[in-house]
């Protein structure tokens, strides 16, 4: 089977997927000046202690990114208490602590774009933006100007390779934990990534174009790889996918090989004052408030109607379309059943809703990624004259509807949907259709206009494969909680000749929203860990299962229950793994259910 498939698909050799990094890890460069971001929590405290143990000259820095008093004069971020905790940690470790404010940078690069995204009907991720622009942007640059050799934080992610790889490990002998293989959910996705049948399906869906398996090059002196953390429940590599690759050369993540429990054990063993301090959660500038109570302080919400997406009838009123996001439960007064947001139009305030969490209109497999593809110059030059797949034929990446009042189009096969949904017409469908060409005038470009933020070196074979019009298998995360999902990445050409990146997941994903961040991964890390290839925002989702004619398909609460999922809201994707209420990963496939309804993923 594999031999036959190889004739149609390219399988680059996987040599160097694992590397002998043990010597490099143990041969730490001693005596570096390392600035450590100390937030006052247990993670950054242990990170600072680990770096100090390795013989480095450590300077702690407490960052102020947000004015802690809101309009009502109430503290949103407990920064004064955090500063006191950070000072206690610095005193305990015998290191200096510097306080530095980055409020202007945070406001301009994180908060204002956050507000703009909601005003435009998108769903932003301020944590990804903060890491890119502030923690590993303004803060990192400031540290380097102060004479730092490296900058360390308490993020849970791995870094392998680079010029020297200092500060890479946690402490030995007290709970450091590096798994020999990916976690259950990621291991299932990895098998799907390289499964010949899955690759064959991707080839067929593309009309016979070849599909390649391209692992990451071996991390080494010329390539510092961002990988999953050892702790699958705390992994933060998704939030770091927007960090610029050159910055990673001078970044250390000492907790990448540790699990959360080991970090707390280490803190207690060292007598750190943060050993039992509770973790901070949520977005700092929102605090414990709901988005519904926070946004109206800065935006004028567009009130309007809840409209049933199947009947087109108004079922209730709401205070503002900007206060909702795709997939969330919508409280509609007098409704006989729970309703879920399908889409919203911030121009007229319409919020389209469906009547079940697992409605097929909420599931889509095709994604158009925002911005320029960002290929290296040589690959970009190759792509200029290559036979690239038209974006409209990439397996249903975009709806065919254009203009207000148009009926949402069918998928790649061209068949009309059995039951068109009004939610995909009007402004939202027109905006998605325009995505095939240039951005509308005046629209904001993601990632400072640089498009996809690649973290792989320019000699990664996948760049040449994409430039030649071939698909490249990838693993994707559309939020931090979901296991990685297998799919195929394509470089395609829009209607105006512009090249774009499109991603087709093997199985549909629930509640994809423009503005969300898609982080891509490929195998290649030590011990089988996944390497983050980079990321960008999602510009548009392709046709839903309902638009493709699978109106009767449901993922099924019975199937979810058999998989041990007591709270379906936590299972955000139709694929190999779903997260249970207990935090474990269970295997569940929807393939048979789809095929029984005459639709194949």
CATH architecture classification of the domain at 22-179 and 224-270: 3-Layer(aba) Sandwich
The biggest sheet amounts to:
6 strands, antiparallel, barrel
Q: Class by helix and strand content?
A: alpha/beta
Gross morphology: globular
Give the CA-CA distance, first to last residue. 21 Å
For this structure, what is the CATH homologous superfamily of the domain at 22-179 and 224-270? HUPs
Q: How many β-strand stretches?
A: 23
Low-confidence parts? 1-28, 172-181, 397-446, 551-601
* CATH class call of the domain at 22-179 and 224-270: Alpha Beta
Strand content: 15-25%
Question: Helical amount among residues, as a percent range?
Answer: 10-25%
Strand order of the largest sheet: 14-19-18-17-20-21
| Helix count from the secondary structure assignment | 16
Rounded to an integer in angstroms, the radius of gyration calculated over CA atoms is 24 Å
Please write out the topology:
Elements (H helix, E strand, L loop, with lengths): L1 H5 L15 H5 L6 E5 L4 H12 L3 E8 L14 H15 L3 E5 L1 H17 L6 H20 L4 E3 L5 E4 L22 H11 L1 H10 L5 E2 L11 E4 L17 H4 L2 E2 L7 H11 L20 H4 L9 E5 L5 E5 L10 E2 L8 E7 L4 E5 L8 E7 L7 H8 L4 E2 L35 H9 L18 E2 L6 H7 L3 E7 L7 E9 L5 E12 L6 E7 L6 E12 L15 H6 L14 E3 L5 E3 L3 H6 L5
Parallel strand pairs: 1-2, 1-4, 2-3, 4-8, 6-17, 9-13, 15-18
Antiparallel strand pairs: 5-7, 9-10, 11-12, 12-13, 14-19, 14-21, 16-21, 17-18, 17-20, 18-19, 20-21, 22-23
Helix pairs in contact: 3-4, 3-10, 5-6, 12-14
Catalytic activity: 5-taurinomethyluridine(34) in tRNA + S-sulfanyl-L-cysteinyl-[protein] + AH2 + ATP = 5-taurinomethyl-2-thiouridine(34) in tRNA + L-cysteinyl-[protein] + A + AMP + diphosphate + H(+)
Pfam families: tRNA_Me_trans, tRNA_Me_trans_M
Family: Belongs to the MnmA/TRMU family.
């Amino acid at each position: 089977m594999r031999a036959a498939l190889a004739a149609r698909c390219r399988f680059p050799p996987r040599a160097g997927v694992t590397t002998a990094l043990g010597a490099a890890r143990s041969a730490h460069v001693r005596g570096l000046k390392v600035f450590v971001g100390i937030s006052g929590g247990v993670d950054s405290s242990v990170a600072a202690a680990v770096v100090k143990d390795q013989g480095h000259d450590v300077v702690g820095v407490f960052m102020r990114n947000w004015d802690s008093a809101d309009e009502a004069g109430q503290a949103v971020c407990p920064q004064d208490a955090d500063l006191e905790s950070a000072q206690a940690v610095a005193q305990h470790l015998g290191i200096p602590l510097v306080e530095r404010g980055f409020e202007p940078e945070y406001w301009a690069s994180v908060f204002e774009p956050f507000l703009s995204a909601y005003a435009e009907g998108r769903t932003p991720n301020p944590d990804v933006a903060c890491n890119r622009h502030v923690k590993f942007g303004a803060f990192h640059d400031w540290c380097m100007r102060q004479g730092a050799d490296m900058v360390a934080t308490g993020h849970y992610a791995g870094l392998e390779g680079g010029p020297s790889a200092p500060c890479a490990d946690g402490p030995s002998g007290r709970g450091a934990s590096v798994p020999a293989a990916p976690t259950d959910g990621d291991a299932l996705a990895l098998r799907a990534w390289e499964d010949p049948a899955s690759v064959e399906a991707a080839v067929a869906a593309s009309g016979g174009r070849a599909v390649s398996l391209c692992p990451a090059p071996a991390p080494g002196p010329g390539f510092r790889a961002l990988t999953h953390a050892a702790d699958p429940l705390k992994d933060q590599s998704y939030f770091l996918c927007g960090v610029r690759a050159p910055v990673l050369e001078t970044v250390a993540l000492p907790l990448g090989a540790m699990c959360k429990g080991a970090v707390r054990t280490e803190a207690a063993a060292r007598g750190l004052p943060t050993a039992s301090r509770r973790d901070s959660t949520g977005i700092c500038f929102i605090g414990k408030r709901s988005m519904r109570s926070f946004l109206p302080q800065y935006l004028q919400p567009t009130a309007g109607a809840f409209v049933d997406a199947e009947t087109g009838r108004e079922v209730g009123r709401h205070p503002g379309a900007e206060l909702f996001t795709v997939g969330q439960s919508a409280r509609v007064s007098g409704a006989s059943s729970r309703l879920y947001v399908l889409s919203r139009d911030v121009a007229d305030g319409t919020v389209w809703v469906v009547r079940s969490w697992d409605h097929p209109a909420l599931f889509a497999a095709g994604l158009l990624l925002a911005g320029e593809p960002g290929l290296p110059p040589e690959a970009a030059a190759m792509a200029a004259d290559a036979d690239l797949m038209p974006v409209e034929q990439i397996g249903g990446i975009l709806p065919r509807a254009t203009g207000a009042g148009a009926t949402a189009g069918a998928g790649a096969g061209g068949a009309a949907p059995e039951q068109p949904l009004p939610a995909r017409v009007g402004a939202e469908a027109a905006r998605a259709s325009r995505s095939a060409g240039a951005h509308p005038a005046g629209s904001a470009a993601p990632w400072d206009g640089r498009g996809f933020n690649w973290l792989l070196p320019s000699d990664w074979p996948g760049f040449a494969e994409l430039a030649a019009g071939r698909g490249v298998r990838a693993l994707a995360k559309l939020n931090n909680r979901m296991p990685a999902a297998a799919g195929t990445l394509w470089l395609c050409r829009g209607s105006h000749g512009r090249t774009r990146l499109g991603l087709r997941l093997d199985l549909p994903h629930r509640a994809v929203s423009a503005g969300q961040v898609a982080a891509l991964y490929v195998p290649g890390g030590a011990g089988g860990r996944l390497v983050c290839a980079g990321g960008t925002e999602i510009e548009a989702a392709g046709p839903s299962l309902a638009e493709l004619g699978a109106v009767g398909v449901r993922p099924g609460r019975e199937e979810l229950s058999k998989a041990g999922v007591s709270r379906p809201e936590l299972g955000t994707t139709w694929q190999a793994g779903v997260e249970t209420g207990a935090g474990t990963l269970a295997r569940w496939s929807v393939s048979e259910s789809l095929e029984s309804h005459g639709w194949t993923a």
